[in-house]
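Project outcomes to date are best conveyed with an example. Our students and postdoctoral researchers have been running inverse folding experiments weekly, and each run begins with a structure described purely in tokens. The record below, which covers 570 residues, was selected by the lab manager from last quarter's runs and is presented without edits.
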């Protein structure tokens, strides 16, 4: 038993719906119930760079998250919530730079007595910002992979200097499992993504050698945990071991603290069933054990889905139930009083060793292809995930993999939880879309159009250079730009992008990443086509297609299929 009880993980619920005002009320209620961090769900238009008044946003505004088209709505979202005291996770990817900029400006406005730099240094939280998994699972990408890496690299370089307590990226294995990944694939593809990101940051030349360890120390992961909680425990211990090896041997990180595998988790949503949904409660509890039982591989932050998320949006009471599951484990059980209860277990050690060995082999296979970007562009990763998912579906349909209440034990009594299905879930406000459209109209009427145009012109110009785009994005947020307001300029934007940093030669951890891959002139090599992609946060699928002279690219973005009946995965 430990002399001192460990501090519990950050407890969150993934929340956001309808309007900023309604979401703000939900956040404040959840915080009053003992939640210790926020996890913001954005709607699909916000995730893909559209304003609510865009024709392509129709029917999706406020459905799977909250619409945040401009700074005014960001203010409203966090009204009466002191951002300098909060730990906020934002599930946002393609438009992550823009949402972080609005978040920082909203925090500055809450603290007028402090300078912008002083405010930024107090902010703590996470932006998901993992584009590679968007090509493999969710589909809310806006830019091609390599150009997306430029935006990620700029955000990381900015935050390590200006928002040092911020996690600028969550490398996501969560969505890989939802797309069918085996534990080996989860480990390998997530770590290959992390390698691609760190190599890009190194190659950008924006971070000194002395500060690079800090970059590594702020890389966080967002993982999944299925109901096979013993295997999930082993997977997390394998993640810890592999990340320590990679950061030490590939990047030369000497500080053990900077090599820690830091991760948050939302347990498996794919496994939640519409049939006999009450069974989801025990599934969620078992999945939570997989990321909390092992002290040396314990999650830093946990958010649990609600029992009824296979049916629709959870109500506040449902989210409270999920929060109470965490609180009972952390505060009533004796889990946090002990050292790692699996140390010395030959069963656990054997399984961890098996996962480490298989993951290393798959990592090497991907690196031989040229790294994560190349494996996305060739379709290798996607094909592997589709095949794994098809195999699992076949096992379920054959009855070889049992899902209680679905393919076995399906006889049931009527459930009082779902007796009135209309009341068992929360319906999104049908007026939310019009409210958001009205908000955008009012916002544009009161802003200085000349100031907005100048800020967007600067952003477009900077996108054609090696400048860090975070500064121009902050200026656009302060000027009053909207999430989709730069669309007209994006057709004329180009992006300067470094060569793929991952070597096509055989990869070994003993080979250090190069310090910089800049061209002889010292600037990042230019992209092959000036119209290949746009680095503006507000790029438009339509404008990208207009700018591109070749045939339709597989990376030309489109609004993902509607998820209005369920939550968009965190």
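After processing, the design step wrote out the following sequence:
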């Amino acid at each position: 038993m430990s002399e001192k009880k460990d501090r519990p993980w950050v407890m969150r619920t993934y929340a956001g719906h309808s309007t900023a005002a309604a979401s703000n009320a939900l956040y404040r209620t959840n915080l009053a119930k003992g939640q210790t961090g926020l996890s913001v769900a954005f709607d699909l238009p916000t995730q893909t760079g559209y304003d609510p008044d865009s024709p392509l946003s129709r029917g999706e505004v406020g459905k799977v998250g909250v619409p945040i088209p401009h700074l005014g709505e960001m203010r409203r979202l966090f009204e009466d919530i002191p951002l300098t005291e909060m730990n906020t996770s934002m599930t946002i990817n393609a438009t992550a730079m823009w949402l972080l900029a609005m978040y920082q400006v909203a925090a500055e406005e809450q603290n007028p007595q402090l300078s912008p730099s002083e405010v930024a240094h107090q902010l703590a939280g996470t932006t998901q910002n993992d584009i590679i998994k968007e090509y493999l699972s969710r589909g809310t990408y806006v830019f091609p992979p390599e150009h997306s890496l430029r935006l990620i690299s700029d955000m990381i370089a900015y935050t390590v200097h200006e928002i040092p307590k911020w996690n600028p990226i969550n490398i996501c294995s969560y969505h890989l499992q939802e797309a069918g990944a085996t534990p080996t694939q989860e480990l390998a593809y997530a770590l290959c993504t992390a390698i691609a990101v760190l190599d890009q940051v190194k190659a950008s030349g924006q971070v000194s050698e002395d500060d690079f360890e800090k970059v590594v120390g702020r890389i966080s992961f967002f993982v999944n945990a299925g109901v096979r909680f013993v295997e999930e425990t082993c997977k997390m211990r394998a993640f810890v071991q592999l990340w320590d090896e990679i950061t030490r041997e590939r990047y030369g990180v000497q500080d053990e603290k900077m090599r820690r595998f830091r991760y948050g988790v939302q347990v498996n949503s794919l496994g939640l069933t519409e049939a006999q949904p009450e069974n989801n409660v025990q599934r969620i509890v078992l999945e939570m054990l997989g990321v909390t039982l092992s002290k040396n591989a314990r999650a830093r932050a946990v958010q649990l889905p609600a029992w009824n998320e296979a049916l629709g949006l959870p109500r506040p009471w449902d989210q409270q139930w999920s929060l109470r599951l965490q609180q009972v484990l952390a505060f009533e059980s004796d889990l946090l009083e002990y050292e790692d209860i699996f140390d010395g277990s030959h069963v656990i050690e054997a399984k961890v060793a098996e996962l480490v060995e298989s993951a290393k082999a798959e990592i090497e296979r991907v690196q031989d292809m040229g790294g994560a970007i190349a494996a996305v562009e060739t379709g290798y990763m996607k094909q592997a995930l589709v095949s794994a998912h098809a195999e699992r579906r076949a096992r379920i349909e054959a009855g070889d993999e049992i899902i209680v209440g679905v393919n076995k034990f399906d006889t049931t009594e009527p459930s009082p939880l779902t007796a009135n299905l209309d009341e068992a879930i929360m319906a999104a406000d049908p007026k939310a879309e019009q409210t958001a459209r009205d908000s955008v109209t009012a916002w544009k009427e009161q802003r200085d159009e000349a100031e907005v145009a100048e800020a967007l012109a600067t952003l477009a110009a900077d996108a054609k250079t090696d400048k860090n785009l975070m500064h121009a994005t902050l200026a656009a947020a302060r000027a009053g730009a909207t999430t989709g307001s730069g669309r007209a300029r994006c057709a004329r934007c180009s992006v300067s992008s470094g060569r793929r940093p991952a070597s096509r030669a055989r990869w070994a951890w003993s080979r250090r990443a190069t310090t910089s891959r800049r061209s002889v002139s010292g600037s990042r090599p230019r992209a092959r086509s000036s119209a290949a992609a746009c680095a503006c946060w507000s790029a438009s699928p339509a404008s990208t297609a207009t700018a591109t002279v070749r045939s339709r690219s597989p990376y030309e973005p489109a609004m993902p299929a509607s998820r209005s009946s369920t939550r968009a995965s965190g």
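Strands lie at 10-12, 14-15, 38-41, 87-91, 124-127, 166-167, 170-172, 220-223, 263-266, 301-303. The longest strand covers residues 87-91. The training component of this project remains on track.
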